[in-house]
Amino acid sequence: MTEILARTVEVTRTYGSVTALDRVSLDIHAGELVGLLGPNGAGKSTLVNLFAGLRRPTSGTVELLGGSPLDPARRRGIGVTPQETGLPPALRVGECVDFVRAHFPGAVDRGELLDRFGLADLVKRQIGGLSGGQKRRLAVALAFAGNPRLVFLDEPTTGLDVEARHALWDAVRDFHAAGGTVVLTSHYLEEIEALAKRVVVIGEGRVLTDDTMEAVRGLVGVHRVTVTVPETPDLPGVIGVEREGDRTHLLTADADALVRELVLTGVPFSGLEVRPTSLEEAFLVITGREPQPA
Ligand code: ADP
Ligand code: MG
């Protein structure tokens, strides 16, 4: 078995009457690239913040590098980019990178770090004058400054344009290829799909699925096939039916197969529409709740 770098055991975290995490048990093994996927409010940030020692659990235990995440010695082995970062606006980019690097005995090379995150041209710029995307790149770069074994990236590409997003994905892949362990969150299936091998689907504070990307794609890759039919045909592979006026929505993981079946029944239908459901809708299907018509 590979070493476990981070672990939660039956962790619950509440904020007043809100249960952000509900008895979550999760192991992160050395060398993994784990995606935490879930809609807004699912509990992803809370989980990352607990791992990184930025929050404490209400109950249950969190372990980081074999000890407590509150121990500064353990925290030196990790890098974190929280979802919200407040970087000092008066500091220059280079100063900020140096400040963070100074906290780590084995910090990465300054120039290399700046290059890797496309920050070399911004070294002398004050953080307060950067664009949102530039600030985000800096915040993500800082997670790697201390040459960590394990990084937590919470919605790392928020506010980045396509090119910057792909450059950041490359940086994450390089870190992972060199043996680094990564936990990243996203509410975009596309981002998790681009990076993660293992996907932990989180909804309403609970782990709904913990599986390979291939398996999860089948679960959340739900399509909505909409037709006007006299009555709802009984078809294989339908995981949800909604009627809206004279329109019938059929939810399925395999829209092609469903349309073939529909044609074979000979039922007169019109106005065929096929479109992917949102991640939120897919979650409602996974959790067995009634999806609302979009
Ligand atoms: P995600 O990152 O998946 O969007 P969060 O972990 O941020 O989810 O939030 C999970 C739940 O906990 C949400 O209902 C959110 O409103 C609530 N929550 C998170 N942080 C706080 C906080 N500091 N105070 C009160 N409620 C919070
Ligand atoms: Mg979040």
TrEMBL record:
It is found in: Cell membrane. Transmembrane segments: none annotated. SUPFAM superfamilies: P-loop containing nucleoside triphosphate hydrolases. It comes from the Bacteria. GO terms for biological process: response to antibiotic. Its main location: membrane. SMART domains: AAA. InterPro entries: AAA+_ATPase (IPR003593), ABC_transporter-like_ATP-bd (IPR003439), ABC_transporter-like_CS (IPR017871), ABC_transporter_ATP-binding (IPR050763), P-loop_NTPase (IPR027417). Keywords: Antibiotic resistance, ATP-binding, Nucleotide-binding, Transport. GO terms for cellular component: plasma membrane. The keyword ATP-binding applies. It is a peripheral membrane protein. Residues 6-229 form the ABC transporter domain. One of its GO terms (molecular function) is ATP hydrolysis activity. The keyword Nucleotide-binding applies. This is ABC-2 type transport system ATP-binding protein.
